[in-house]
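Sequence in, structure out.
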Amino acid sequence: MPYLKIVTNERLDDVSLQELLKNSSAFAAKLLGKPEKWMMVEINHGRPMIFDANTQPTAFVELKSIGLAQEMCAHLSQSLCTFLEGELGIPPDRIYIEFWDINGKMFGWNGGTF
């Protein structure tokens, strides 16, 4: 049930948005070692955002997954920042990432929980 949410002030055209969705899904699933079948990605682009007192390109990212160990977060942060810099041109020092380890019994799907 991995979930990746990217909020950015960068504006994307429809083709770029669809490409970023697909690339993000494949990248995050591989990064987490989870089947892409379970990967969900949300991208909110063109959002009004300010970071470090300016409106240059920035992003806030949430990554949620069952079994997301604290020891993985530094590697995940580096990998996600590198990915977003390549995809959107956002420098890593303008990206915040929030990690969530989800208890499967507290996450619903298909009328049940994991």
